[in-house]
Design goal:
By secondary structure, this protein is α/β, with parallel strands linked by helices. The chain has eleven helices and ten strands. It binds D-glutamic acid.
Length: 256
């Protein structure tokens, strides 16, 4: 029997990856697990993020997935390497801020990264910058409060607009010509970020590149094309969110 592919995020952000994954692999079955009860992860301790990620991965393995996508920069930073050690038989795909492609495509050598506090202060982003920045300048900007608004369906609100201006404007003033979306939730406000940054700034969202990576790391042999959604939070609310965001009418099941 064809097994599903598990996709996990603290909340709705990983749906940006799922959307492209479904387009690329329409016959695959997916299980999307959102840890909405414990989101946002960005301001939590590394121990908490590790144990929540482990719990989610265990749940996906219990559901017999053939591979796991950690569609969360923050959880990938903290837990991806250890997950690979703990579950050597499961192929994992993670996500990290797209510093390398941003530096490669920047014309003026000034790049900005928008991410959660956890990702900005974590070791992975620092090592990506020292590995790939070269002569370029890579500026990082933590965006506290943004994930919460997107989780509450307020990505288009005045509050979100004000926060985005607060976070994006200093990077633009510093001269960035390329901005990296370093948190999967921010994909859903990428157009707003682009409006604020202006036409001279290129936005790099790695969601589709991660979806593409699924095909390299996990066997593509599905026949069902179905998606099962689970949340540790309010299932009725997530069901409504799927309808509002994607016009998708689907049951949502509770997860531990
Ligand atoms: N979507 C997640 C990321 O890519 C994390 C958001 C959060 O829970 O803080 O980092």
């Amino acid at each position: 029997m064809a097994q599903p592919i598990g996709i996990f995020d603290s909340g709705l952000g990983g749906l940006s990856v799922l959307r492209y994954a479904k387009e690329r692999f329409p016959d695959e079955a997916f299980i999307y697990l959102a840890d909405q009860r414990r989101a946002p992860y960005g301001d939590r301790s590394r121990e908490e993020i590790f144990s929540y990620t482990n719990l989610a991965v265990n749940r996906l393995i219990e559901l017999e997935v053939k591979g796991v996508v950690i569609a969360c920069n923050t959880a990938s930073d903290v837990a991806l390497d250890r997950m690979r050690e703990l579950y050597p038989d499961i192929p994992f795909v993670g996500i990290e801020p797209a510093v390398k492609p941003a530096v490669a495509s920047s014309q003026n050598g000034i790049v900005g990264v928008l991410a959660t506090t956890g990702t900005v202060t974590g070791s992975r982003l620092r090592s990506l910058i020292s590995k790939y920045a070269g002569a370029s300048t890579v500026l990082t900007q933590a965006c506290p409060g943004l994930v919460e608004l997107i989780e509450d369906g307020l990505g288009d609100s005045k509050q979100a607009e004000a926060l985005l201006r607060e976070y994006v404007t200093p990077l633009v003033s510093a001269g960035v010509d390329t901005l990296v979306i370093g948190c999967t939730h921010y994909s859903f406000v990428a157009d707003r970020i682009s409006d604020i940054a202006g036409p001279g700034v290129r936005i790099i969202d790695p969601a589709d590149a991660v979806a593409k990576q699924i095909g390299r790391a996990i066997p593509i042999d599905g026949t069902a094309g179905l998606t099962r959604y689970e949340t540790s939070g309010d299932a009725v609310r997530m069901r409504r969110q799927l309808l509002e965001m994607f016009d998708e009418e689907s049951p949502v099941y509770p997860s531990p």
